[in-house]
Amino acid sequence: MEGLKIIYFSTGQAAKKLGLTVRTLRYYDQIGLLHPSTKSENGKRSYSETDLVTLEKITLLKNLAVPLRDIELILHKVSIDELLAIHQQKLQQKAMEIQQALEHTHTLRNSIKIEGELNWKQLLPLVDNETNAKSSWNDLLSVSIEESEILQHDLPKMENASADKWINIIKRVQLCLKHQRAPQSEDGQLVAADILLLSSELFGPHIALEKAFWDVRKSPEASSSLNLYPIDSEVLQFIEDAIIFYEQHIKE
């Protein structure tokens, strides 16, 4: 039975197959990182399939920011699976960085929706501290594990699309204030009804938690410590007055 035929690739073919340049392959040969399996007298290089696997390892290590001088030391001591595991970890880190960049972009865009322009004084602390708020809900409130989960994970945040409904409410309140419409007006009461509906969706049966949240939200200091986007005191007062009137005169 004849042995399997070894397939060879020219420098150009190998470079194209791996997405490298011919110059890169020649440089690897020059520094001794990877010599082609064969080299003719006229200098023509030929790469075997084994050489291509080695080049894939080199490429993976380079993508992991391993210096060329160190690649040769570990090249034959690390399996492809180990390299892929390391590469996967690197990609996950990049994915996290991209996700954070997307969240920052959402925060900026949502801020423009509320303010009409970028309010850097309010935004910079939000972006800088969003992953490490100075306080936690547990520091301010005595909450159960379930309530803590609601506050930590279910609250709409400026960095994601779930904040749109609340942003629209804030903008409606701003319009009411601009046109001097009272919290007891039809527009004010529609806002109150929508807020109560959203709060019910968010907090469910946790009525005490809902009240505690709004108490915290009315405090600029507490909101800042929890890394919440600051809401104008006039807006918050309008919301409170509208809800009180709604519950006393409309809801029943």
Structure description:
The protein has 252 residues and is mainly α. Helices cover 67% and strands 4% of the residues. It contains 13 helices and three strands. A three-stranded antiparallel β-sheet has the order 1-3-2. β2 and β3 form a beta hairpin. The termini are far apart. The model is unreliable at 131-135 (pLDDT under 50).
Helix fraction, binned, reads 55-70%
Count the DSSP helices: 13
Q: How are the strands of the biggest sheet laid out side by side?
A: 1-3-2
Distance between the termini: 92 Å
What summary fits the major beta sheet?
A: 3 strands, antiparallel
> What structural category characterises the helix and strand content?
mainly alpha
Described by the principal axes of the CA atoms, the overall outline is elongated
Radius of gyration: 30 Å
Strand content bin: under 5%
Query: Roughly what is the average pLDDT, rounded to an integer?
Result: 78
N-to-C SSE series?
EHHEEHHHHHHHHHHH
The strand count comes to 3
Low-confidence stretches: 131-135
